[in-house]
Amino acid sequence: MVRRRHPPERAPAAEEDNGRVSTSRSTRTDGRPTLEKVAARAGVGRGTVSRVINGSTQVSPAAKAAVEQAIAELGYVPNLAARSLVTRRTDAVALVVSESEERLFGEPFFAGIVRGISSALVDTPLQLWLAMAQSAAERERVERHLTPQHVDGVMLLSLHDADPLPGLVEQRGLPLVLGGRPARLTRPGVAAGRFVDVDNAGGARRAVEHLYSAGRRVIATIAGPQDMGAGLARLDGYHEARVGHGLLNEPDLIAYGDFSYDSGKTAMKLLLSRRPDIDAVFIAADLMAAGALRALRDSGRHVPDDVAVVGFDDTSVARQTEPALTTVHQPIEEMGKAMARMLVAHISEQIPPDSSAVLDTTLVIRESA
After folding, report:
1. Recorded GO terms, molecular function (predicted)?
2. Which of 138, 127, 174 minimizes the C-alpha distance to 154?
3. Where are the domains of the chain?
4. Was domain 92-198+333-359 assigned CATH 3.40.50.2300?
C-alpha cells in the first residue's frame, strides 16, 4: 500500500495592510487576542487597528482612542517579529561601554550616562541594550550583535583610539553616536562629527586658572589616558593655562592615570617624589583626585594649606572626599540625554550624519581649593 505524503506545514505568515503589518487570522488560537477581536471590540475595521498599532496619523482621535481601549481590555500584543519584516526596524538601540563590569556599575560617571539615555528614550518605542566590551569574549559577543537585524543604532562610550568598534558599526550601516570626541578625529571609517562631548579643554583651563588666581605657582597635573579624547583635551587645557602665564612645559609636573582611584593615588606619589615643592594639582577625574587626596594625606601634606586640589566631573565622589573637592562640573546626565536624542534623530534621518554637540562645563568651588 502506498502511504500518501502530506506537504510540510508552513510557518504562519505575516500579512500586510497598506504597508503595515498585522498577524494572519489563521495563526491565532481562539484564546489569544487577535487583530479581528480588537477591531470588533473597538467597532472599527481591521485596517484601522493596524494603522493605530503602527503609529499612523491617518486615524481619527476617536477611532484611535477606541482601538487603544480595546487593546488594553483584551491584552492584545502585536506580532513584533512580523512587523519588523516590513518596517525593517528592531526598536532596540545599543550602548556599548568599553570598560569592565566593575567600573561600569561602580563609577558614578557611567551611571549618570545610563540614566540620561534611559530618560531620553522613555517617550520612544526604543529599548536600550547595554553591553560591556573589554575582554575578548565580550567583544566577540558584542560584534556579533551589532547588526541591523538586532539593533537600529549604536552608542559607544569610553572609547580608546585604537578601538575598531566605530569602524565596524559604520561598515554595517548602523547609525552611530560616540560618547566623547574621538582622540583622533581623522581615524579612517569614522565620521569625525558624530559625537556628544563636554568642553574638556575649557573646563581644565578654568581649573588651572583658579589655582593660579589663588596664588599657587607649582601646579602639577594628573592626566587621563592619552588615547582617549577626554584625556587629551584636559591635558591640553592644563597646557593652555600655563602658556597663558608664560610658563614652559615641565614634564616632571605631569603624571598619568586611567581615571581610576588607584591610578590617581599612584600618580600623586610619583609627582611628590619628583617635585616635593608642588603646591597645587589639577586632576582629570574625581576618582583619581580621591586617590590623590589619600596619597597627599599619607605623605603628611594638608589640603588645601600645603597642596590645593581640583578634580573634574563633579560626581558624588567630589562631595564625599575629605576635604570636599573643588572640581569641574560636567553635565553627565545631559550628555546621556543628548546622545540618545542624537541617535534617535539619526535613525529617523532628521539631522545630518556629521552632527555633534559640545556641552558647557563650570567650576564648582569647594574646600580642596
Report:
1. DNA-binding transcription factor activity; transcription cis-regulatory region binding
2. 174
3. 14-87, 92-198+333-359, 200-331
4. yes
State the DSSP H helix or E strand holding residue 22, giving kind and residue range, or none if neither. strand 20-23
Select from 28, 29, 22 the least CA-distant residue to 47.
Answer: 22
Which of 140, 228, 151 has the alpha carbon at shortest distance from 182?
A: 228
Q: For residue 110, what are the CA distances in angstroms to 98, 235, 277, 305, 315?
A: 11, 21, 35, 33, 10
* Alpha helix (H) residue ranges in the chain: 35-42, 46-53, 61-74, 80-87, 101-106, 108-121, 136-145, 165-171, 200-213, 229-244, 261-274, 286-298, 316-320, 332-347
**CA end-to-end distance (rounded Å), the chain:** 97
Q: What is the pLDDT of residues 310-353, one digit of tens each?
A: 999 999 999 999 999 999 999 999 999 999 999 998 888 776 66
C-alpha cell at 245: 602665564
Q: 180: phi > 0 → left, psi -120 to 50 → alpha, else beta; which?
A: left
Range with the lowest mean pLDDT among 42-46, 73-77, 184-188, 225-229?
184-188
Q: Are 208 and 241 in contact (CB under 8 A)?
A: yes
- Listed in sequence order, the residues at least 6 apart from 254 whose beta carbon sits closer than 8 Å to its beta carbon are 220, 221, 223, 235, 238
CATH 1.10.630.10 fits 200-331, yes or no: no
DSSP codes joined into one string, 84-139: HHHH---SEEEEEE-S-HHHHHHSHHHHHHHHHHHHHHTTSSPEEEEEE--SHHHH
Among all chains, which residue has been given the C-alpha cell 552632527? 355
- CATH class of the domain whose range is 14-87: mainly alpha
Beta bridge partners of 283: 222
Q: Do domains 14-87 and 200-331 have the same CATH topology?
A: no
Angle formed by the axes of helices 61-74 and 46-53, nearest 10°:
90
